[in-house]
Amino acid sequence: MTEDEELAEALRRVTLLFENGKPASSLVRDLAILGAERMLKDDERARAARRRLAEWSINMSEEERELLREARRSSVGGETEEW
Hints:
Layout: H1 5-14, H2 24-59, H3 62-75
């Protein structure tokens, strides 16, 4: 691994959160695993949010659609596409 100032600074900041004297390679490994787990959880939350949005948009009432059209018209100066 080449010297990376940003990585070195990040490791310095989190060293106190981990066991004292832990080798940098172990710390990097632990952080990589935690980071991967976090990314996977974030991705799943985003996918679930997109599914909820899609379901909501398919099942919304005509009144809700009109409210969205009005909000779009007022935000883009009157231009709108039909949904």
